[in-house]
Design goal:
The protein is an alpha/beta fold. Helices cover 48% and strands 15% of the residues. Helix 9 crosses helix 10 (264-278). Residues 206-219 and 270-279 have low confidence and may be disordered.
Length: 279
Amino acid sequence: MSLTNESVVVITGAASGIGRALAIRLAREPIAGIALSDVNQTQLAETARLIDKPKLRVTTHVVDVADEEQMRLFVEAVVERHERATHVVNNAGVALGGTFQQVSLDDVRWLMSINFWGVVYGTKLFLPVLEKQKLAHIVNVSSVFGLVAPPGQAAYAASKYAVRGFTEALRHELENTNILVSIVHPGGVKTNIANNSKIGAGVNLTEAERLEKIEKFNKRLAATTPERAAEIIVRGIKSRKSRIVIGSDARLLSFFARLFPRRYYSAINFISRGKLKND
């Protein structure tokens, strides 16, 4: 069992979505504390308010995971308030709409600074704290687009594949140490990431068209609730799974990627067209 009454869990991106649901779900475990971070102070405070466990020490920290100095101060604050950290969930992430031709280099830098460098900072800077624990666990959240790379998601997929490669190498490096390492691949989850996604500089969409695309995504692809995703992640942490895939869509896409490594997207499109005709 990797969650005990001495565990202190750190969660980034905890103001909404999977991060919020995970904080609420973890509070039901026999743990000592939770440190929550996000850039959105108001919603972060709401997450803390929703954790109904008076004896559990819950702290909130307004942090931009893309800022190395802020992350250093975050680590210091967690140790000061909780005395330790045993589990770090690098969950914070953003989305970017547009083909690679449509997004700007600044768009890509912004995306990578959060989705990839946020994970790197959260891992590197908490490592000295985790090394002092009896048992510690790093959980890095990638995406189904860390398993497959569809058109229109070049930058986002690059960031999530980077998280996957980084985490898998880290797991091998920390094998036979006190630190466990897991990678999470959520499929379509009903979160605010699509609603809050940034549109690439060269994408010509009206606000109405953008909202229509988001509605279609949420209706067709976001099949899993954040609460269900959180439950699967907690089960994965407790059973020490190195790879946690969330949703039947993610499992199916992962299967196709292994079966058709070059042509999986064509196979997925073929099946999707057949499904649409039958609906």
